[in-house]
């Protein structure tokens, strides 16, 4: 997630460098073509490029709004994960006696591993050594590790009720919290696996290049440099807006505009360990970058 710091212009330029080169070459070629005697007499009313530009603007506005909605939903879901993780451990701590502190510790450790595993699974990254060590020690495997960890939570809650450590009413409350965590996990998976229609991007791209192609014929041919410059800058502005929308529409792709799942997992880890009175509580690493992962 981008922070309230100076954003790297170099990073953004790297994202659109191929489009910059293509637009520059395209604009220069169209500008030179427009100056040739064969095409010099062709003049389009400025209203035609203006109309195409308006259509592109409307499509980009819709695309950006939809992308931001996906990004914001992802951040909202992870906010719920933070809250429900605290709620789960608070319930376990309160529902079990101090003599059974190891129960709260087991749930705390597993919940911490769950949030790290979920973030890494959504980014399609190999599990970190911290997660792998826990999984190997407890012999947890499967195609969906975060879901398997929630199953372990559920099994232990059922066992607590069978042993009489918690009542059936408290079991229901704990299972409701687990259901919310599972629901949040499902929402994240839906966002991750739902692809924005490629045909929409193709349409926007096509219209941008149509706009760049007809714009010089709607301008006066007195100054080639000015004509080419305008033909470069306006389409590049459109391309930049579209690229921003494309980056935002996938909030789990391990990029600077991602939902900061690792940072949130670190926050959850610190909070849960504090709640259970752990002796060793990690310190959140200081971040000097313009983004947070």
From TrEMBL:
Among the GO molecular function terms of this UniProt record, one is: chloride channel activity
Q: Where in the cell is it found?
A: Cell membrane
For this record, the Gene Ontology CC terms, alphabetical, are:
plasma membrane
Q: Superkingdom, according to UniProt?
A: Bacteria
Parts of the chain that traverse the membrane: 20-36, 42-62, 200-218, 224-241
Database matches in Pfam families: Bestrophin_2 (PF25539)
Q: Which InterPro entries match?
A: YneE/VCCN1/2-like (IPR044669)
**Keyword line:** Cell membrane, Ion transport, Membrane, Transmembrane, Transmembrane helix, Transport
Q: Which ranges of the sequence are coiled-coil?
A: none
Q: How does it sit in the membrane?
A: Multi-pass membrane protein
Q: Which family does it belong to?
A: Belongs to the anion channel-forming bestrophin (TC 1.A.46) family.
Protein name as annotated: Putative membrane protein
């Amino acid at each position: 997630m981008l922070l309230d710091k100076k954003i790297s212009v170099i990073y953004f330029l790297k994202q659109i460098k191929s489009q910059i080169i293509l637009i520059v070459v395209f604009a220069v070629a169209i500008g030179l073509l427009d100056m040739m005697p064969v095409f010099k007499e062709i003049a389009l009313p400025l209203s035609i490029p203006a109309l195409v530009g308006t259509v592109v603007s409307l499509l980009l506005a819709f695309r950006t709004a939809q992308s931001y909605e996906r990004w914001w939903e992802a951040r909202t879901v992870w906010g719920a994960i933070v809250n429900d993780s605290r709620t789960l451990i608070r319930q376990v701590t309160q529902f079990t006696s101090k003599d059974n502190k190891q129960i709260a510790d087991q749930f705390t450790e597993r919940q911490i591993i769950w949030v790290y595993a979920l973030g890494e699974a959504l980014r399609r990254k190999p599990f970190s050594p911290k997660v792998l060590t826990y999984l190997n020690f407890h012999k947890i495997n499967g195609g969906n590790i975060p879901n398997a960890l929630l199953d372990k939570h559920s099994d232990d809650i059922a066992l607590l009720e069978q042993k009489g450590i918690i009542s059936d009413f408290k079991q229901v409350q704990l299972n409701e919290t687990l259901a919310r965590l599972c629901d949040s996990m499902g929402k994240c998976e839906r966002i991750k696996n739902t692809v924005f229609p490629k045909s929409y991007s193709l349409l926007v791209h096509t219209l941008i290049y149509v706009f760049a192609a007809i714009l010089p014929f709607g301008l006066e041919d007195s100054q080639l440099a000015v004509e080419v410059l305008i033909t470069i800058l306006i389409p590049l502005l459109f391309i930049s807006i579209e690229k921003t929308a494309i980056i935002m529409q996938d909030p789990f792709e391990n990029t600077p505009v991602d939902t900061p799942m690792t940072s949130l997992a670190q926050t959850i880890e610190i909070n849960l360990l504090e709640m259970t009175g752990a002796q060793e509580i990690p310190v959140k690493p200081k971040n000097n970058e313009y983004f947070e992962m």
